[in-house]
Amino acid sequence: MATRLLRGCVAVGAIWLALAGGPALADGPGAAARAPGEVPSLDVGEAVRLAEAAVGRTVPDFEMRDRRGKPVRLSDFRGKPLLVSFIYTGCFEICPTQTRTLYESVKGLDVMLGQDQFNVVSIGFNQPFDAPEAMRAFAAQHRIQHRNWEFLSPRADQVDALTRAFGFSWVATPAGFDHVLGVTVVDADGRIHSQVLGDIVRADRLGVPLRRLLLYDQPLPALGQFENIVERVRILCTVYDEETGEYRYDYKLILVVLSGVLFFLSTLIYLGLEWRNQRRQRRQLRAPCPSTPQPASGHGV
Questions:
Q1: What number is the average pLDDT over the span 224-247?
Q2: Has residue 253 got a pLDDT over 60?
Q3: Phi-psi region of 245 (alpha: psi -120 to 50; beta: other; left: phi over 0)
Q4: Is the peptide bond before 209 cis (omega within 30 degrees of 0)?
Q5: Side-chain half-sphere exposure of 111, counting CA atoms within 13 A
Q6: What pTM, to 2 d.p., does this model score?
């Protein structure tokens, strides 16, 4: 069984680094320079730089396998925002805690955005150990039940290119993996929109980039015009409640929006009536006057 060695939870800004059981030594992206014989570790500043440098990059479209062993490509998730989390199944505490925290955040986001507005994937980077069977067991063990959340296993020869593309830094050590925790937000076109780094990724932190994507940076999924407007208003009228850790509807804001809509409609009706009255008056002015019949002259033959 894998063991976890926690090195003081080194914190820099929003990043937490953790160690847990893993494979043999290897220097991954973000590894700190080290002398021969020294234990590998992450260069935290470099890890931050790599994560931020990935913003705007189109993610690679490798074919992976889901937890049932079926082939899946990241392009299959295009058309909606996508939340991406890198994990490994041999971790006892850090990755499970991160995944459960993300699960609670996703349930809160469902209230604000709706269940079908975004997707989530967890990618196992410890290959070949994070095989579909291991990912399926990990999801079941931690009770991750969400219809838009999938667990993916890349091939071992894809891991380096995949993690570098996402700006995900990791280093294998004698005790396991030293890696960055966080979630990558990908837009509907497959480009990295932002990085939300840290071991506690709350719904409000993820809600900021997702709201921006859905309301401003890209259109909502194709609906009728009225449904589209209603959906945008619904998203705008939700706020994060720090006491409950969930999103809720702000009824004061809803009243403000409804008042604005009623004012707009009443103004539109008033202008329409005025235009109709003025058009009627112009028609009356242009109408010809009726001719008056002339009386008979009275002269006979």
A1: 60
A2: no
A3: left
A4: no
A5: 18
A6: 0.69
